[in-house]
From TrEMBL:
<comment type="similarity">
    <text>Belongs to the bacterial solute-binding protein 3 family.</text>
</comment>
<protein>
    <submittedName>
        <fullName>ABC transporter</fullName>
    </submittedName>
</protein>
Length: 244
């Protein structure tokens, strides 16, 4: 004799097996890093517009909360409210799972217009003082050379501080995304004195892919998989271009 299957029971079992239902809300941390992310930017920035579109395509809502970078990473690591943080460059990690790429950014050096620097490899920069932002991932080679003491690095807490230090001749160059430099010079009054005094170095370090770093647990893996599927449903390049 066939047994009757109760629809309500099926729904209950599905919910038990799949803890993430449609229309769930996800919380991530981010930082003020215009034009990619910023609380007061249109759509909160290019990277956040991409992320929200991808989650929306999958029926979920993304809420982004903004903090200084080091705190954003710490909260994503230690606070159960947050499933991760972004935008981030890829690095080897046991704590985080990285999404598929959600856009790119041109990473290079800002330099003083009166002191342009020619280089072919990072070995050519061992006599320079290079500004970095505390806890930012740069490139694997550069970060290794800084850690080993082969490159003299000066750390600050924001890109704008580095731009001002380069403009004032206190450091030779600083790592920065060229889109970030362009935005700061056009929109941030704090760096007005640097206008006409700094420029991007002719040679880029790399075109860096951008990611969401999800917690390395079952919940983070589910959200990563949902996000990756959502990315296939949207036009990443068009959304990025619209917000640059």
């Amino acid at each position: 004799m066939k047994q009757r299957i109760i629809p309500g029971l099926i729904a209950a079992v599905v919910l038990m097996v799949s803890p993430l239902s449609r229309a769930d809300t996800l919380y991530l941390t981010s930082l003020e890093w215009p034009p990619y992310s910023g609380e007061d930017l249109p759509s909160q920035g290019a990277s956040i517009a991409v992320a929200k579109a991808a989650f929306d395509a999958m029926g979920h809502e993304l809420v982004v909360e903004f903090y200084p970078w080091s705190r954003a990473v710490a909260l994503a690591t230690n606070n159960d409210k947050y499933a991760g943080y972004f935008p981030e460059y890829y690095y080897e990690s046991d704590e985080f799972l990285f999404s598929d790429p959600m856009g790119q950014g041109p990473l290079g050096f800002v330099e003083n217009v009166d002191n342009p620097i020619e280089w072919n490899s990072l070995d050519d920069l061992t006599d320079e003082t290079i500004g970095v932002v505390q806890d930012y991932v740069n490139t694997e080679e550069l970060d290794r050379m800084i850690a080993d003491g082969d490159i003299n690095a000066s750390a600050v807490t924001s890109d704008s501080q580095n731009v001002l230090k380069v403009a004032g001749g206190r450091i030779d160059m600083a790592v920065i995304d060229s889109n970030v430099l362009g935005y700061l010079l056009e929109n941030d009054p704090k760096v007005d004195m640097a206008i006409g005094k700094v420029q991007m170095n002719d040679k880029l370090l790399v075109e860096k892919d951008l990611y969401i770093a999800f917690k390395n647990n079952a919940n983070g893996q589910q959200w990563r998989d949902i996000f990756n599927e959502g990315l296939t449903q949207i036009d990443i390049d068009a959304i990025m271009a619209e917000h640059m």
